[in-house]
Design goal:
alpha/beta, 382 residues, 4-stranded mixed β-sheet, 10 helices, 23% helix, 3-stranded mixed β-sheet, L-arginine/glycine Amidinotransferase, Chain A
Length: 382
């Protein structure tokens, strides 16, 4: 167990668009997540894996050999290259890897005298031997255990909490246990977004709100910021207000606002003043106008539309195009059989010109109160 904070040792959480070694998924096996839709959901996973596997390994957590056999059948029929897929037989409760899975940080080593350069958002998955991006001489990955606790809402989380520790053992990576003093510091990956340069986005509803701040009760804002800086290597924490309606995570930022480059974010915008999301999203636009990046520069904000409201049994579902996932080989975007699907795909295609932007039908997925980004966790290339 580490005795120093990751930031003290030079570790930083890379941006999602930087090259991956792998993507982690938890195979769907809890029928209560998708009531009445469980038969359809594995086939959506099959399509997700089919689009990710050409560019990186896909590491899938399954509960048993029997579940692996079922997953293999689905993936084979979907046309997935199974040579790119690795299975881990670990018990899970829910399996939303963005939140319960391993959160990786990286410490880079560079060639002495080499020209330092970070991968831009539009860079292809790999670089040739003569490319200045080869200034990296390799690096070290580590995992931060943020003590997942079921979004401080559900009781079935104890198996999920063990996934980061299991991953650190399986990959033989250093594990940092997130704490503030003697207290465990609880965080989910969907509650943050980083630009890989030192700036992190999150929401007050998720980590500061007096009424819903049940993850780390009693922590002051500066204590939360210090913890984020110590364990993720960031230097600049930006606080938006609230998340979107229907989100059962108390306002995760990955349904609202995402970095698409070191200086650019997309921010969801609601056009209907009568919609419950209209005012909170407008307030987030107002906040971002006054915020600055780690170097003092202004943030370029690109509006991203919201799909029409989706409901299930009179309950609003958190349908959002911001829940996209950036893989090496493609950007996967949730779609909802909505006229705005095409608009959202077009906006993201312009922002990620180096990767194909692919729509994944998510009407069934969102019944589990999350879609593509919630399901996946990137493992950066060392």
């Amino acid at each position: 167990m580490a005795t120093k904070y990751p930031a003290e040792l030079g570790f930083l959480m890379p941006a999602e668009w930087e090259p991956h070694e792998a993507t982690w998924l938890g195979w769907p096996q809890n029928a209560s997540d998708w009531p009445g839709k469980m038969a359809a959901v594995p086939w959506v996973y099959g399509e997700i894996v089919r689009k990710i596997a050409p560019g990186e390994k896909v590491r899938i957590v399954v509960g048993s050999k029997a579940f692996e056999a079922r997953a293999r059948r689905v993936l084979e029929i979907a046309g997935v290259d199974l040579g790119q897929v690795e299975f881990f037989h670990w018990p899970t409760d829910r399996g939303w890897m963005r939140d319960s899975g391993p959160i990786f940080v990286r410490r880079e080593r560079r060639v002495r005298g080499a020209r330092a350069s970070m991968y831009p958002a539009t860079a292809p998955p790999s670089a040739g031997s003569g490319d200045p991006r080869r200034a990296r001489a390799g690096g070290e990955l580590a995992i931060v255990d943020f003590h997942f606790k079921g979004w401080a809402r559900y009781d079935n989380w104890r198996k999920d909490r063990c996934v980061p520790r299991r991953a650190s053992r399986a990959l033989r990576l250093r594990l940092f246990e997130a704490k503030y003093g003697t207290r465990k510091f609880i965080l989910e990956g969907g509650g943050i977004d980083v630009n890989g340069r030192g700036t992190l986005l999150t929401t007050e509803e998720c980590y500061l709100d007096d009424k819903t701040q049940v993850r780390n009760p009693g922590m002051w804002p500066h204590e939360v910021e210090v913890s984020l800086e110590r364990y993720l290597g960031v230097t600049n924490v930006l606080w938006l207000g609230r998340g979107i309606s229907g989100d059962d995570t108390h306002g995760h930022v990955d349904d609202v606002c995402r970095f698409v480059g070191p200086r650019t974010v997309v921010l969801c915008k609601c056009e209907d003043p009568k919609d419950v999301n209209y005012r909170p999203l407008e307030e987030n636009f107002e906040r971002l106008a006054d915020m600055r990046l780690e170097d003092g520069a202004k943030i370029e904000v690109v509006p991203l539309p919201m799909p029409a409201p989706l409901t299930w049994r009179d309950y609003r579902l958190p349908a959002s195009y911001a829940n996209f996932y950036v893989a090496n080989a493609a950007v996967l975007v949730p779609t909802f059989n909505d006229p705005r699907d095409r608009e959202a795909l077009g906006i993201l295609a312009e922002l990620f010109p180096g990767r194909p932007v692919v729509g994944i039908h998510a009407v069934d997925l969102v019944l589990g109160f999350g879609t593509l980004h919630c399901l996946a966790q990137q493992q950066p290339a060392p």
